[in-house]
DNA sequence: GATCGTATGATATAACATATCAACCCCATC
DNA sequence: GATGGGGTTGATATGTTATATCATACGATC
């Protein structure tokens, strides 16, 4: 769950560890990680890229876990509200959280070539958003920090 | 065009100055600021909030400048590509640029109560996005920095 | 066993965005 | 002044993302 960058890694452990963490956290907080919710988390964890709600819905549909948009959106709302997944605004899509352990101010790096998305840990208080907001007297409730570009693997090719 | 924050100001000059700048810049760069494009810019300048493409389209339709989605999207593409407007990813909506003069790395402060959106100037090189990207060897082509929350006027009320 | 809260099922629709092809206009070139 | 290319517009259709609404199921609580 700490896959920091665009590097190769044992991906099976990503899924297993992600689900295990979620199960534990839900138990601690009395959250219901129902079948559909857990399955959506697994689907998101299965790839290091953002997936659209309808792409997720196709999986659910194929597995008999639901066939209509609200099924996917409800699961995604649960996952994002509770920090198990994030919405990537730039893509109108979703990705599993890769820093489940600590509260965070994520920065997402989105490769336009290979579509991989990496969640990096940022220091909220040091960012430009926070600085600007403080100066304006603005109370930040949610900050979106997303960069689109080329990952180390794709940059040379392009 | 330097309305920095959520403060009161002479709004007519916002529109006039914004259009004037755009006209001049287009002349300098040989860009065609056609009727529809200029009108969309004026519509965006008319309010300090983000407007959806279909909301803009309604205006155009009422004025006989077009009635189908591509009309609005084409004008918006021209305006955003040339820096006269910005897309707010968080809202799937658009806003006129308020720093036409200088190249910039804008931060948007979005008030969820009054819907006002302020474009603030940030220092790209100092932000957390840039720091994180550098560490990961990621080449940033576009950075999205948007904060949602409460503006100084709305924060006390809430 | 009635009530309540949470989760699902099901249907419809809203909201946002793009693909495609034809027509047109301006202007430069032949 | 005809030809052709580039950019713009018109028109139609479609694709994609997201939510509203009402009904049903089910375990927990009283
Ligand atoms: Zn996260
Ligand atoms: Zn890549
Ligand atoms: Zn701007
Ligand atoms: Zn406000």
TrEMBL record, chains A, B:
<dbReference type="InterPro" id="IPR036388">
    <property type="entry name" value="WH-like_DNA-bd_sf"/>
</dbReference>
<dbReference type="GO" id="GO:0000976">
    <property type="term" value="F:transcription cis-regulatory region binding"/>
</dbReference>
<dbReference type="GO" id="GO:0045892">
    <property type="term" value="P:negative regulation of DNA-templated transcription"/>
</dbReference>
<dbReference type="InterPro" id="IPR036390">
    <property type="entry name" value="WH_DNA-bd_sf"/>
</dbReference>
<dbReference type="InterPro" id="IPR043135">
    <property type="entry name" value="Fur_C"/>
</dbReference>
<protein>
    <submittedName>
        <fullName>Fur family transcriptional regulator</fullName>
    </submittedName>
</protein>
<keyword id="KW-0238">DNA-binding</keyword>
<comment type="similarity">
    <text>Belongs to the Fur family.</text>
</comment>
<keyword id="KW-0862">Zinc</keyword>
<feature type="binding site">
    <location>
        <position position="154"/>
    </location>
    <ligand>
        <name>Zn(2+)</name>
    </ligand>
</feature>
<dbReference type="InterPro" id="IPR002481">
    <property type="entry name" value="FUR"/>
</dbReference>
<keyword id="KW-0479">Metal-binding</keyword>
<dbReference type="GO" id="GO:0003700">
    <property type="term" value="F:DNA-binding transcription factor activity"/>
</dbReference>
<feature type="binding site">
    <location>
        <position position="114"/>
    </location>
    <ligand>
        <name>Zn(2+)</name>
    </ligand>
</feature>
<keyword id="KW-0804">Transcription</keyword>
<feature type="binding site">
    <location>
        <position position="151"/>
    </location>
    <ligand>
        <name>Zn(2+)</name>
    </ligand>
</feature>
<dbReference type="GO" id="GO:0008270">
    <property type="term" value="F:zinc ion binding"/>
</dbReference>
<dbReference type="Pfam" id="PF01475">
    <property type="entry name" value="FUR"/>
</dbReference>
<dbReference type="GO" id="GO:1900376">
    <property type="term" value="P:regulation of secondary metabolite biosynthetic process"/>
</dbReference>
<dbReference type="GO" id="GO:0005829">
    <property type="term" value="C:cytosol"/>
</dbReference>
<keyword id="KW-0805">Transcription regulation</keyword>
<feature type="binding site">
    <location>
        <position position="111"/>
    </location>
    <ligand>
        <name>Zn(2+)</name>
    </ligand>
</feature>
<keyword id="KW-0678">Repressor</keyword>
